[in-house]
Amino acid sequence: MKNVLLIAGKEIQECLRNRWVIAMTLLLAALALSLAFLGSAPTGNVGTAALDVVIVSLSSLTIFVVPLVALLISHDAIVGEMERGTMLLLLSYPVSRLQVLLGKFLGHLAVLSFATILGYGAAAFALAVSGAAITASSWVAFTSMILTSILLGAVFIALGYLISALVRERATAAGVAIGIWLLLVVLFDMALLGALVVDQGKTISSAVLSALLLFNPTDIYRLFNLAGAENISVLSNMSGIAESGRLSPLVLLMTLVAWVIVPLALAGLAFSRREL
Amino acid sequence: MTAIAELDHVTKRYGAIEAVRDVSLKLEAGETVALVGHNGAGKTTLFKLMVGLSRPTSGSIRVLGDDPAAGEFAARKRLGYLPESVSFNGALTGREVLSFYVRLKDVPMAKIDELLARVGLTAASNRPIRTYSKGMRQRLGLIQALFGDPLLLLLDEPTTGLDPALRQEFYEIVQELQQAGATIVLSSHALTELEERARRVIIMNRGVVVANGSIEQLHRIAGLPVRIRVTVASGQAQGLAALVGPVPNWREINGHLVEFDAAPGAKIALIRRATDKGGPAEDVTIIQPTLDDLYAHFLRTHGEAL
């Protein structure tokens, strides 16, 4: 455990040094703040709590941005250090490869959590200060959005490691990472939508649809945040899926956790078989 | 003596290339071994196998009681490794990198300052490593290899990039460790440099160990002739030739200097004759074959002798 924390600490130190932390925090804060103020202006008189609107727009944005950021910091983690030669020395030390991987994961997750909490928190804080009335349930929904955003980030960090442990070159890792991002963030939903339109509800039942959605972590995140709380599901037009879906928040959460553990375990397996 | 590390019929194949072929060797406690060979002879692969960075295709390895191929790493606490071209994250300072590695090996922080001072890196220790020269990086690599009073020190081309003064300093550190009982494996191209340091020489060629023994043993096995150089009074070279008799590679450099080869067995007799009372000899120099000559010999005869 000590080794894991040491490696995590070094990873955080490196992310601080190469300005990853500050860049990521500023990016997320800028997006959240602009959504909080631009987004709430037109709906201000409808009567929905401003924070709920922010949750809807911000979680839609999270689906695009957080996976991208997570893949950016993680795709390079193993293959990059191998190419630069720094892995050679690290692995000659009394640490196991699993410890190295877990340490990196903890470090990167800490950096991402810091950026998300600070960046998104800034938006909520600004709303609260500007006098918007925020109900307790909105706060709960906002907090759970931040936590699941971090979890979504963890999924893509783990996927990034898996890519990094499998490919031979950094450039390949970057290419595959972009491919994975496109697939899970854009193409998967488009394909699903296309299938639904073509099918006209003949073979794809709502149960099948729910099951299919579990194959994409970004959809799980979307379901959890946009269809979870009642206010928000109405606001986000997700109530239809939520009602027919029968997926409890717990199931969604567990599946998202599995989306972290499985790629991470596979990355560990691939990394332990790698030779330098 | 106990074996610190043992390789048993180890072969490592990368695709069709056999980087290391059927290598068996033992490193005893406290010995210093020079690992010698061309680029691509398999030295670096051998180090990587011992550290556990790659796994042997066949054969078994034990290092300080661990099987590195199985991912065992407890003993690496007492193992120092300096890779061939050591690299660090350039954004961090020397001190930051060292304090990370020192904690991974559970060594007190005070060791950092002691070693920084030793290799003359104290002043640069708070600068980012990207500003370091090759020699400074090499010194940083050396420091980290010395953490934890290593029982086994694997140094892959340790003196590349070091100036002569630092080279000297480096060998002094090695000697101290040697006296403290550490087992040291050095690989290098600079053979003459290793000649006085190593008790044992292992010569590799294309993945195969072609010679393995003390320098004296290797000299004996190789049976290389020594070169005898005699200074004679002007114009007396022919007189010397008559005295010595027929010898291989007779060469008159100028009127004063004559050189010839002497097989190890015939050395004493030849010198006696050459320096006979009343003869023309004024001075005699004996030139021993160097490690370079030995190396060349074993590379040439590889396949015949073994």
Briefly, what CATH class of the largest domain in chain B?
Alpha Beta
Relevant CATH superfamily of the largest domain in chain B: P-loop containing nucleotide triphosphate hydrolases
CATH architecture of the largest domain in chain B: 3-Layer(aba) Sandwich
How much helicity do the residues of chain B have? 25-40%
Strand content of chain B: 25-35%
List the total number of helices of chain B.
10
The best one-word shape of chain A is: globular
SSE string of chain B: EEEHEEHHHEHEHEEHEHEEHEH
Question: Gap between N and C termini of chain A, in Å?
Answer: 24 Å
The count of DSSP E runs of length 2 or more, i.e. the number of strands of chain A, is: 0
Spatial order of the strands forming the largest sheet of chain B: 5-6-7-3-8-9
Model description:
The complex is a heterodimer of chains A (276) and B (306). Chain A is mainly α and 276 residues long. Chain A has one domain. Helices cover 82% and strands 0% of the residues of chain A. Chain A is built from 13 helices and no strands. The longest helix of chain A has 33 residues. The relative contact order of chain A is 0.14. Chain B is of the alpha/beta class. Chain B folds into two domains: 218 residues, Rossmann fold (3-Layer(aba) Sandwich), CATH 3.40.50.300; 64 residues, BMC (bacterial microcompartment) domain (Alpha-Beta Plaits), CATH 3.30.70. Chain B has ten helices and 13 strands. The interface between A and B is medium-sized, with 23 and 30 residues.
